[in-house]
Design a protein that fits this description.
981 residues, 4 strands, 67% helix, disordered N terminus, disordered C terminus
């Protein structure tokens, strides 16, 4: 094996071949640079030294010639180790081609030193020999002209140049230096072209670039580019500069990014992610936290818009994530936090005394917190740590009150990571005691419970595997674990109370939550009484939720029943005081105050204090002098409108009916009537009460007052009860009075409600009056009632006329009915009329009625009518009449042969679930039905058959159809359609 000395000698031997291009190759320095074939080219260039085209053609011809030779050679004879170290310059032919091309380019540049095209081609050629073959990346889509720096960094990272098989930086150090020197000469001639600078800086990203070039020289080159190029082109350099700084890491990254952030703070979020996960250095969480805090404050003031679309709260959340992750490096400990809080508290007191302004002797006052004032918490260069508690309270809880759960848990997690468990517990307790939503409470409580569980589990694990055998430490740990378990159990038991506290903080006027609070205390009478007292002190009656009065009522019942458990003595005096206080509360609704008085009276009734109950209701129902108060005037207190509460008077009336006298009850009812607050139910109850006590005429007067006060449809029910009671009481003894009452009722009764009154009126005349008057009443009813009730009214009228005068007397009634009833009901009435005529033996009249009704009956929709007419003709008609019936049926079917009627027929047949299909498939029971079935035509006639058929064709088809029928039934009567033509 070769020794180390031999290896180093071989490396030195390879390095001795470089630089190939320094000094600049010329025929005098390199004798083999030109051959006999190149003499003509040289002579042409000497004749035309100022012809750019001649130089460009010569260079490209030479480049293509050497490119073909290099492809043919392919470095077959070169060992892999040498090929890896030397890359494109591994073969003598490659080195010779570089010298020849460099000679031509240098000679051309002497003639055209300001040609960017020539310099670019020359530099690309040199880079291809030193850096290797460039990998061309395929790119989909276009690029933005002026992208944001964040997007520009991502795009540039994807588009950054990459090479294969470059020259090793140690072996080819001299050649790398020569390439750098060439770039420096190019920039000396063309310093304002950004493309040359970008090509130059791309060398620094090469993995084989020597460290002397890729570090300090690269940084100085980037700085020279920024100083040389105009500011409008700086963004193109900064993109490469920042990417290069990220690859180097350490102080280089920090210093470069700090410089750029002074110009453009939009990449601050990207910079913080680099600080937290650097390439080859320790994280800088304090600087990252201060930067994010500064961004969050600026975003909340509207001075910063995140390129990633983050809100100010999301930026503050990222700050909290850093605080939780690097708690020791970012924030103060407990003692420093307490001292800082005291300092800030004193500063706040002093600023409040001066109204937040600092007055100078010269100039106008300047606010202390003006934008641009120095804040050490936002200075990333300051090594001072942060007061996390103050930041969370000032920048978080005071601004984002709807996100209190995340902020409190983040602060508590910070203290847990620092090992300050007592401070964490106090933070959790403070958060639970201040949040206003169930979501935030649940977030904090779950984190609190999880922390307690983890702490207990850690203590249990330490007891299971003790590191030392010290009994005192073990016992101390056991005592601490017992204390923590008790605290955890107490926390779980407190959860319903804590939830209730949250809801009451959100809305202290929520009556239902106060009731739940009372229920949580169970049988603890002292706590229940304190809760009721506190609730009644806090709740604003005008802002309270529904059922505030129930809180007073339940509080009074609490004393009435002797506490929650009922073990104490009932305290009626305290209950009365509470209800007395409740009567002075200005509730939202009058009904709430009425409920208070009613509950007070009921309480007295439960304890058999009947006189006191009546006195309570008398106080409540006291009528003021001015009774013209609007019940719905909410500008007045409820106490002023209480006397018009029907609920209060209804309870008062029930109380008087139960324990009072008839006169006192009548007096209360009369007051209700005088105040004009009675409804129909009160009228009926008053009349029923008088009827029970045998005050018949007074009860009828009450009914009459009710009918005067109320209009239809409400008065209809009163009239209905009144008339039935009157008829039941007097019968026919006061017939004229009864008739007057019915006439009064029917005078203003609407048509849709008068049918029961007419029937009752007619029944009265039948029972106690004249049949003629009864018939006139029924006839009048058929003219007055609503259209939907006329058919039924005519049916009743016909039945009554039949009973009183016989069947012939109903004919004019039927005729009038057919004139006024709608089509569908007319058909039904015609069937009844025809049945009447058949009973009377008037067959022709019945047939005429059927013919009249047929115009309303579609054969497909009303098959019942046609079946009945068919049966009628079979039983009583002749062949001519039957043929006439069929003709009418076809004409009616043609009349209804429209799309709407067809759809109606189809819907009806579908609803009958195939019943019509079964009946049509069955064989007709009699010959006449078979003939009718055969005579039926299609519902629709095709267009090609609209012309009348020829007689000979029709006869032939009829004969063909009749042959099998005659074979089945020789006695069948066939009626052809021809006979109708």
């Amino acid at each position: 094996m070769p020794s180390v000395a031999e290896k180093s000698t071989s490396v030195d031997l390879l390095a001795s071949q470089f630089p190939v291009t320094l000094p600049i190759p010329t025929p005098t320095t390199y004798s083999n640079l030109l051959s006999i074939k190149d003499v003509q080219r040289e002579e042409d260039l000497l004749r035309n030294p100022s012809s750019f085209r001649a130089w460009w053609t010569a260079i490209h011809a030479t480049k293509e010639a050497y490119s073909a030779q290099l492809k043919a050679e392919r470095r077959v004879s070169v060992p892999d180790e040498i090929a890896t170290l030397l890359g494109p310059l591994a073969t003598p032919l490659a080195r010779h081609s570089l010298q020849c091309l460099a000679y031509l380019y240098e000679a051309a540049i002497v003639q055209f030193p300001g040609s960017f095209k020539l310099w670019k081609s020359y530099l690309q050629m040199r880079m291809s020999y030193v850096l290797g073959r460039q990998v061309i990346k395929k790119r989909a889509g276009g690029r933005k002209k002026l992208p944001e720096m964040k997007d520009a960094l991502e795009e540039e990272k994807e588009d950054l140049e990459s090479w294969e098989d470059g020259l090793n930086g140690v072996v080819g150090w001299e050649e790398w230096r020569s390439l750098i020197a060439t770039y420096e000469r190019a920039l000396m001639w063309l310093p304002k072209l950004p493309r040359l600078w970008l090509m130059y800086t791309s060398i620094f990203f090469h993995p084989m670039c020597p460290s002397l070039i890729s570090h300090t020289h690269a940084r100085r080159t980037f700085d020279r580019a920024l100083r040389t190029l105009p500011p409008s082109l700086h963004s193109r350099i900064w993109v490469r500069y920042l990417l290069w700084a990220e690859t180097k890491g350490g102080p280089t990254t920090v210093s470069v990014y700090r410089r750029y952030l002074t110009v453009d703070p939009s990449v601050t979020e990207h910079y913080t992610s680099i600080l937290l996960s650097p390439v080859d250095s320790v994280p800088r969480p304090l600087e990252a936290a201060k930067l994010l805090l500064s961004l969050a404050r600026k975003a909340s003031r509207g001075e910063y818009v995140s390129p990633e679309g983050k809100s100010s709260y999301q930026l503050l959340g990222d700050f909290l994530d850093i605080v939780e992750r690097f708690s020791d490096e970012v924030g103060f400990d407990v003692e420093a936090t307490i001292e800082s809080n005291e300092v800030y508290a004193k500063a706040d007191v002093e600023s409040s005394k001066t109204d937040g302004q600092l007055v100078r002797s010269d100039g106008s006052p300047v606010p202390v917190g003006v934008d641009g004032a120095y804040d050490e918490d936002e200075d990333p260069l300051s090594p001072r740590k942060l007061n996390i508690e103050r930041i969370v309270h000032k920048d978080g809880l005071e601004v984002y009150k709807d996100q209190a759960g995340r902020l409190w848990t983040g602060l508590a997690t910070y203290w847990i990571k620092r090992g300050e468990f007592d401070r964490a517990i106090s933070t959790f307790e403070a958060g639970i005691a201040t949040v206003l939503t169930i979501r935030d409470f649940t977030q904090i409580f779950d984190a609190y419970a999880e922390f307690c569980e983890s702490l207990i589990n850690a203590m249990m694990e330490s007891l299971e595997s003790p590191e030392d055998d010290d009994d005192d430490d073990t016992k101390e740990t056991e005592r601490e674990m017992d204390v923590k378990m008790k605290e955890f159990e107490a926390l779980i038991d407190r959860r319903p109370f804590l939830v209730n506290d949250v809801l009451l903080r959100r809305n202290p006027n929520d009556v239902q939550e106060w009731e739940k609070r009372v229920a949580l205390w169970g049988e603890d009478d002292e706590k229940v009484a304190d809760t009721y007292t506190k609730a009644l002190e806090i709740i604003n009656p005008r802002k309270a939720t529904a059922n505030l009065h129930r809180l007073y009522v339940n509080f009074a019942k609490f004393y009435e029943e002797g506490g929650s458990s009922g073990s104490a003595e009932p305290d009626l005096d305290s209950a009365r005081k509470i209800l007395e206080k409740a009567t002075k509360i200005n509730f939202k609704a009058v009904e709430d105050l009425a409920d208070i008085w009613c509950e007070w009276s009921e309480m007295e009734l439960r304890h058999e204090n009947y006189d006191e109950a009546v006195r309570v209701m008398q106080r409540a129902a006291a009528i003021p002098k001015n009774t013209k108060i609007n019940y719905h005037d909410h500008s007045l207190p409820v106490q002023a409108r209480l006397f018009k509460s029907l609920k209060l008077w209804s309870f008062y009336v029930d109380l008087e009916e139960s324990i009072g006298t008839v006169e006192s009850t009548k007096a209360v009812y009369d007051k209700i009537m005088d105040l004009k607050i009675a409804n129909a139910q009160v009228i009926v109850n008053y009349a029923a009460f008088l009827e029970e006590n045998q005050y018949w005429e007074d009860s009828f007067k009450v009914y009459e007052r009710g009918t005067e006060v109320f209009t239809f449809p409400i008065s209809f029910e009163i009239w209905n009860i009144y008339l039935s009671k009157f008829v039941k009481r007097y019968g026919g003894s006061k017939l004229e009075r009864a008739r007057d009452l019915f006439e009064q009722a029917l005078e203003k009764c609407p048509p849709k409600s008068c049918k029961p009154l007419f029937l009752m009126y007619g029944q009265l005349e039948e029972d106690y009056g004249l049949a003629k008057r009864a018939m006139s009443i029924y006839e009048r009813a058929t003219q007055v009632v609503a259209d939907e009730n006329k058919f039924e009214m005519y049916t009743i009228y016909i039945a009554k006329a039949t009973a009183n005068y016989g069947l012939p007397a109903t004919r004019p009634i039927f005729e009038r009915a057919l004139e006024v009833l709608p089509d569908k009901q007319t058909a039904e009435m015609c069937l009844r009329f025809a049945a009447l005529e058949r009973k009377l033996g008037e067959i022709d009249r019945a047939r005429a009625i059927y013919a009249h009704a047929s115009q309303f009956c579609d054969p497909r929709v009303n098959p019942k009518f046609w079946q009945e007419w068919n049966s009628f003709e079979i039983e009583t008609g002749s062949e001519d009449t039957f043929r006439e019936m069929l003709r009418i049926k076809r004409s009616v079917q043609a009349q209804f042969n429209t799309e709407a009627s067809y759809l109606a027929a189809q819907t009806l047949s579908a609803q009958q679930n195939g019943t019509s299909e079964q009946s049509s498939a069955a064989q007709p029971a009699d010959p006449m039905a078979a003939a009718e079935q055969q005579a039926k035509g299609p519902a629709f006639v095709a267009a090609k058959k609209t012309a009348l058929p020829r007689p000979d064709e029709d006869q032939a088809s009829s004969a063909a159809d009749l042959v099998p029928q005659r074979a089945d039934n020789a006695d069948e009567i066939h009626i052809s359609d021809e006979e109708d033509l």
